[in-house]
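Minutes, project check-in
Item: structure for the 422-residue chain
Input as provided by the requester:
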Amino acid sequence: MSDVITVKNLYKIFGDKPDRAIQALNEGKSKDEILDEYKQVVGVDDVNFTVKEGEIFVLMGLSGSGKSTLQRLVNRLHEPTRGEIVIHGTDIVKLNQKELREFRRNNFCGMVFQNFAILPHRTVLGNVEFGLELQGVEKEVRQEKARKIIEQVGLKGNEESYPSQLSGGMQQRVGLARGLAVDADILLMDEAFSALDPLIRRQMQDELLELQSSMKKTILFVTHDLDEAFRLGDRIAIMKDGRIVQIGSAEEIISSPVDDYVKAFVEDMDRAAVLTAGTIMQPAKEIAFTGDGPRTILRKIRKNGLSGIFMTDSKRDLKGYILANELADYIKEHQNEENIPFDKKLLHDASHVQEDMALSDVINVYHESDFGPNAVVSSSNQLRGVIVKGAIIAALSEGYDVNLENGSGSDETANDSKEQAS
């Protein structure tokens, strides 16, 4: 995916001495010290990030962290003090007001705000078509398009209703529909669901994800809610005092927080709901191939101290799981034969999970499996790795670092017969 938004060395200082404030920041002074000494407010401090095409990129942090200021800088609702904001290859900091208006019209869907920001004197249809009206789109064309978007967000039948006649969730759908109707590829959402009741908020999150699966917008989403950020974001930028502290996926942030601030932020998260099978899997120490004979397979098992082994074909498509004791008994029965054929009865259905399965679901599958570890497979059933009990326990523990666990090949559970088959 290509980069749609690239922000480089971006600063926003509110006050009449911005250069002095930036100099002080570079000298190591804090946001509070600069406010006390120079009466300058640091909104954004040397921020760098990119947003990829079709990505939901979440800016999150506590009140005053700079997340909303940063979003408003991205379409120049605030004027940057210093830095670059490159969108589709154009540095919009360099555009004059006329050029900026035209650029916004063609590239931004507008903003969806916490307080809905819909026009009370216009109907649902009138609100949704408003952006198209500003673009000069003919009435018949814009209303047809608006009606399609209204249906997409679940408001069909409410076209002639006024905002005062709608619930909070319905009003937020109107705001979302108005942004989508413009059909630009970048959507900015600032605490868009924060004013909603928890149940309605969850529904709106579901609807946004469903719409995104088909529309593939590039979304810059601001929230102070960690659950919301982790649920929606392909990547999340955690902000503090105008700076980005860490950028990563939900798994990366919860597994490897960069400092105590981020660690405190995520310590109450349900790790099992965020981490996935792909995060905690370990490489298989050895595998059997469909062309291997029984003696070859048993030699692989014994060499690695296993109690069983996964079998794949040459393309690593998972075929099943072989128990060491059953294989040894089978070979003993045929010990006088020079070439022992492999009996498919030795091949058991392997307990397996998809790479993107949440750890909470992995745990359920693990407990239901009859033997062996869980195989982790791709969407095309190729063996990617294995999950043993020790990896699950480690992942649920504080301080778990995905970079230490993945690929370690550790055998801390080698004495547990159920865990040795990797």
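Outcome recorded: DSSP finds 19 helices and 17 strands in the chain.
No further action items on this chain.
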